[in-house]
Design brief:
The complex is a heterodimer. Chain A is an all-beta fold. In chain A, about 0% of the residues lie in helices and about 55% in strands. Chain B has strands at about 5, 10-15, 20, 25, 30-40, 45-50, 55-60, 65-70, 75-80, 85-95, 100-105, 105-110. Classes of the chains: A mainly beta, B mainly beta.
């Protein structure tokens, strides 16, 4: 158990809908990272927050947005969903905002868009 | 931009045999390198990382990796695998401490009895 929690574990929704994925980092970790894992694209970095501020952006679509709240939990919002958004979405946390620090991954949220 | 290539998508190996999972990166500057492991139905876990210093890096669960700058490689090795090593292994790279990490496509390790 990494100490990172993600809810829900599974999510099934229809095209065009909007969903919110939630992540609670390990106690004391200030950085939260979001990744998308799919069969064709592999593991792609989406976005990073550090202590409430956006720190780095990866291959995140404009339909997707995220935020980190004062209690440090984070939410990833996915809107106007398409079939291709079906994937495993991971959240990871680390103590600092450095890329060379160890990231602790949550168990993931499996999103299925039908 | 930096990239990571994991040459094998799947590697079958007999239990107690040695294994090497290959990883090559492309970058003309210094890099930081990582190996992560993903057990079935779980998130990723850091196995080891190379930041600087000794080119032979030891990680958890008996794994080690060797950084080879001339060959731009960071291959992962274990002298004797166990059935519990069945997992997907990801090589990753970043150029600097403030940049994002780029992951390879992963290598699925199958342990044969």
């Amino acid at each position: 158990d990494s100490g990172v929690t993600q809810t829900p574990k599974h999510l099934i929704t229809a095209t065009g809908q909007r969903v919110t994925l939630r992540c609670s980092p390990r106690s004391g970790d200030l950085s939260v990272y979001w990744y998308q894992q799919s069969l064709d694209q592999g593991l792609q970095f989406l976005i990073q927050y550090y202590n409430g501020e956006e720190r780095a952006k990866g291959n995140i679509l404009e339909r997707f947005s995220a935020q980190q709240f004062p209690d440090l939990h984070s939410e990833l919002n996915l809107s106007s969903l398409e079939l291709g958004d079906s994937a495993l979405y991971f959240c990871a946390s680390s103590v600092r905002d450095s890329a060379v620090g160890e990231q602790y991954f949550g168990p993931g949220t499996r999103l299925t868009v039908t | 931009a930096q990239s990571v290539t994991q040459l094998d998508s799947q590697v079958p190996v007999f239990e107690e045999a040695p294994v090497e999972l290959r990883c090559n990166y492309s970058s003309s500057v210094s890099v930081y390198l990582f190996w992560y492991v993903q057990y079935p139905n779980q998130g990723l876990q850091l196995l080891l990382k190379y930041l600087s210093g000794s080119t032979l890096v030891k990680g958890i669960n008996g794994f080690e990796a060797e950084f080879n700058k001339s060959q731009t490689s960071f291959h992962l090795r274990k002298p004797s695998v166990h059935i519990s090593d069945t997992a997907e292994y990801f090589c990753a790279v970043t150029l600097n401490r403030d940049d994002k990490i780029i992951f390879g496509k992963g290598t699925r390790l199958h342990i044969l009895p």
